[in-house]
Amino acid sequence: MELGPYILLASIEGSVTAAVLALTAVGLSLVFGVMRVVNIAHGEFFMLGAVIAWFVAQALGAHPAVGFAAALIVAPLVVGAIAVAADVTILKRIDYDPERTIVATIGLLYIIQQLTLMGYGPDARPVEAPFNSRLAIPWWEWKDGALQMYWPWGLATTSYKLAVIGAAALVLLGVWAFMTHTRAGLLMRATQQDREMALAFGIPVERVYALVFGIGAGLAALAAVLIVPISQAHYLMGADPLLLSFIVVIIGGLGSLPGTVVAAILIGLSDGIVSVFFSPTLAKILATLLVALVLVFRPGGLFGTRQA
Questions:
Q1: Structure pTM?
Q2: CA nearest 148: which of 138, 158, 157?
Q3: What are the TM regions of this chain, as residue ranges (predicted)?
Q4: Residue ranges covered by each domain of the chain
């Protein structure tokens, strides 16, 4: 078989990674853009979403679609509420100081991780997908003077993976609409532009910060719920999403939501293709090298403000 079908299959796998990564990284970018907080615990909010999804699915014990649908609602809300509580009880009390918030979120990371280990255990556990039909993928080639379609053996994906891509795209469009067409989004953008001016105009900045921190964590949890039927819920699963999210946010531009989405697509597709043809380790190395190049030649990121 020629190389093209394999590249197509790798691109589909990379698109799934890109979709989940975009949701996770947009949450991280939103928190940094509005609050100027580097949330080291963001990966643990992702992990909590997957673990809560497993608990919800087990508790309902009904058809997989029922448990999964409930998890899509419950996990982001619960994780968002935990994030709001962390903001009010920890970050607010240290006045969102950049250095102290890094230390505080590192502490939050270990607290969440160890509490999850105590309550959930060390085992990786799957959540059954609501649907998972196998779909053959066609390919086209030029033969006998005409373009002909055929079905390469083994070239297939699943309906659930395609649904993950579509669901992530819809959520990202929803985030964009929320930020550009709602009063809450307007307040967030005003706070991002100038915190002191926002305070002068009576905007409740601390409430905006709590809302942003909750939304960022909720997006990470939602991404985890989408991916957990493909992977598994584990108490240490937050490390890779955190690393890749930081890579995406740096490449796209700190605080730039469009840049974050574009960078997530770039990293996700490259990760999928390189992992299939070479190794996942090489994919991470190339992503890290790309970050280094961006920091050297365009410190503000591809869509960020160019540094003077």
A1: 0.91
A2: 138
A3: 6-33, 45-62, 68-90, 102-121, 159-179, 208-230, 242-269, 276-297
A4: 3-134+149-297
